[in-house]
Amino acid sequence: MNATHDSPIASVAVKPKPYIHGVILFAFCLGFGLVMALTNDVTLDDISARALEDKQNSLSQVLPDNIHDNNPVLDTVTVKNEEGKETTVYRARKDKQVTGVAYEIFGTGYAGEIRLMMGIDASGKLLGVRVLAHKETPGLGDKIEAKKSPWIERFTGLSLGNPSVERWKVKKDGGDFDQFAGATITPRGVVAAIRRGQEFYAANKDKLTGSN
Amino acid sequence: MSNAENSNQYSTIVKDGLWDNNGVFSMLLGMCPTMAMTTSATNGFGMGLATAVVMAASSYLVAVFRNQITTEVRIPVYILIVASMVTLVDLAMNAWMHELYKVLGLFIPLIVSNCLPLARLEAFAAKQPSFPALLDGLFMGLGFTIALTAIGAVREIVGSGTLFADASLLLGNSFKVIEMRVLPADMGVLMMILPPGGFIVTGLLVVVKRVLDLRAGKEIQMAGAHAV
Amino acid sequence: MKEFAMIMISAALVNNVILARFLGLCSFMGVTTRIDTAAGMGFATTFVITVSSMADWAVQTYLLDAYGLGFLRTVTFILVIASAVQFTEMTIKKVSPELFQMLGIYLPLITTNCAVLGVALLLVEGHMSFINATLFAFASSLGYSLVMVIFAGLRERLALVQVPRLFAGPPIAFIVAGMLAMAFMGFSGIAAS
To answer: Which residues of chain B from 40 to 79 reach within 8 Å of chain C, CB to CB?
Structure first.
C-alpha cells in the first residue's frame, strides 16, 4: 500500500500483466479442486458405507425379518422396466423360495424426483414403502417420510386390486388416498409411483420370483 | 494496535453481526434461503448454522489470501472459495455425521446461492487480517441463524401451530423438550408456510427490528440499500 | 407440442423462479425501483440463464457424469456461469453498443444472481433432455423477467403513496411481494403433474 505513495515508478513497474489474473484464477481452481478431490477420496468409502447401511435399513423396513432367512442386499437381480431403465431388485427368500422382493421406485414431486423403496410379497401385496430421498418443501411435502407422519404406512397390505387400479390416486383426483394440506403434488407423485411399481411387479413376476 | 482497541473492535464485530447490521433484517441479504428454508424454526436454525460454518471458513480463507487475489478475478475466486467450502461441508457431513446430514443435507448446496457470504467477503474479509475476518464471518452467520430461526418460528406458530417441531431430529433427543404445540392442529393459517407468508413475515419482522431500535434510541435504517 | 407448452407454463408461471422457488430475490428487491431498469435486468438475465443452462447441461452430461466428477458440480457450474456472463458482456458490447450502455452496470451482477445457478441445478436434477432443458431455462427466465417488471410497476406506484414511516422502504415492498406471490399461487391449478 505505502509503496504506491512513495514511488509511483515502482508501482507502474509491479503493475501486474493481464495474463497474471488468469494464472491466479487457475491456481485457485487447481488448489481448491485438489482439496475437493482429496476430500472426495477420503470420504468416498465412508459415504458408500453409509449409503449401504441406509440401504440395509430401508430394506429391513419393507422386507420384514420373519419372511426371509437370506440377506436380500446380496441377492439381487436386474430387470429393465417399461422405460428401459434398469432396476435392481432385492429378493427375500425362505427355504430358497422367493417370499418377497424390494426395489426402488421413482415419483415426480413438487421440487424434483422422489426416490422410494417398495417391498412386495410373492402374491403382490405391499409389504411396505419408505422414502429414500426427496427434495420436497420441509414442513409440507416431507410428510411422506415415515418419521414425520404415518401417511406412508397406509399402503402396507394393499395391492393393485385393493383398492382397484383406478382408485390408486389422491382424493383430490377421485382416488382413495389423502393428500396433505397445502401439498397435493407430492402425495400424487408418490401414489403414482407405487401404482407403477406394482405394475412393474405384475409384468415381471416370473423373472423376479424365478430361482436363478 | 493495543489490546483495548482490539477487544473494542471485536465487540463491534460481534454486535454488528448479531444485531446492529444483521444480514437479513438490516442489510436484506441472503433473501433466497431466508424465504425458502424458514417453513419451521428448526429448518431455519439448521440452515443458519450450516451457513455460519461456511461463512466463517470462507471469510478466514479470503483474508489469508487477500494479498494474492487481484481485483479483476476476485469475484470468481470468492465464489470458488464459498463453493469449495460448501462441497467440503457437504461431503464431510455425509461421511461422518450421517444422521445430521439426513436432516440438513437438503439445505447445504443452497448455501452457494446465498449472497450474504459473498457480500461479507467483499465488504470485510478482503480488507482485514484473518482473525477479525473469521470473527466477522462467524457472527454474521450466527446473526443470520437468529434471523432465520425467528422468521421460521413466526411462520411455524401461525402456519402449523407448532414450535421447534422435529428439533430432536436435528439436535438429538435431549432437545425433545423444546418441541411445542402452541395452537391446536387445525388452527394453522397455511398461507404462512407457503411462499407469500415468507415475504410477509420477513417484512413485518423488519418493522419489529425498527421498533426495537427506535426504543433503544438508535437511528432506524431506512433502506437495506446495497442489495446486489 | 403439448409437452413443450406444459414445460413452458409450469416453469414460467406455476413454479415461478422468484415467487415460488425463491431464487433471485436479491435482484428482485434491489433493481426493481424503476420499470426500465427491471426490464433491462430481466432481458440480460434471460440471455445469461438460457446460455449458461445449455452450457451447464453439456458440462454435466459429457464431463461430470462421464468421468464421475459429480462432487465438482457446484464449482464447475459457477465458473461456467461466470464465463457466460463475461461472454454475454463481450457479445453485447460488439453487436449493440447502445444496449451495452443500457445494461452495462447490471451485467457483472448476474454472476451472483442465484436464479442462474438455481435453474441450472434444477434442470440437471430433473434429468431433462437437451431440448426440454433449454425450453425450461428459457421459460424460467421469462417468468423471472415478467415478475421483475410487474413488481417494478407496483413499486413505482408505491413510491407515490404515503406509507407509515416504520413500513417505508423494504418492509412494505416485502408485503406487496407477498401479495403478488398469493396472486401467482392462482396459477398452480394448471400444473400438469
So the answer is: 75-76, 79
Domain spans, chain B: 15-215
Cα(B203)–Cα(B197) distance, rounded to whole angstroms? 10
Q: Is C126 within 8 Å of A112 when comparing Cβ atoms?
A: yes
Give the Å distances, CA to CA, from C167 to A98, B156, B220. Answer: 67, 23, 11
At position A151, the amino acid (one-letter code) is W
Contact B44, B163 (CB under 8 A): no
Place of cell 440401504: A55
Q: pLDDT for B185-217, tens place per residue?
A: 666 677 888 889 999 999 999 999 989 988 887
Q: Are A55 and A119 in contact (CB under 8 A)?
A: no
**Beta-carbon separation of C181 and B115 below 8 A:** no
Q: How many angstroms from the chain centroid is the CA of residue A106? A: 8
| Cβ pair B92:A39 closer than 8 A | yes
All three cell numbers of A174, joined, read: 377421485
| Helix (H) or strand (E) segment spanning residue C87 | helix C73-95
Contacts of C103 (CB under 8 A, 6+ apart): C40, C41, C43, C44, C92
Phi, psi dihedrals of residue B181, rounded to the nearest 5°: -110, 115
Using CB atoms, pick whichever of B76, B196, B228 lies closest to residue C82: B76
Domain extent for C41: 20-184
The CB density around residue C65, as the number of other CB atoms within 10 Å, is 13
Measured distance CA(A187)–CA(A183) in Å, rounded:
7
The tens digit of pLDDT for each residue in B122-173 reads 888 888 899 999 999 999 999 999 999 999 999 989 887 888 877 776 776 7
What is the total count of domains within chain C?
1
Min Cα–Cα distance to chain A from B162, Å: 11
Cell of B163: 414450535
Parallel, antiparallel, or unpaired for β A76-80 and A126-133?
unpaired
Strand A86-94 to strand A113-121: parallel, antiparallel, or no bridges (unpaired)? unpaired
**Are C122 and A112 in contact (CB < 8 Å)?**
yes
Domain ranges of chain A: 1-62, 63-209
Bridge-partner residues for A102, per DSSP? A90, A119
Smallest CA–CA distance, residue B19 to chain A, in Å, is 27
Contact B72, B8 (CB under 8 A): no
When pLDDT is cut at 50, 70 and 90, the band that residue A14 belongs to is low
Q: List all residues 6 or more positions away from B3 whose beta carbon is below 8 Å from its beta carbon.
A: none
**Interface predicted TM-score (ipTM) of this complex, two decimals:** 0.85
For residue A183, the 8-state DSSP code is B
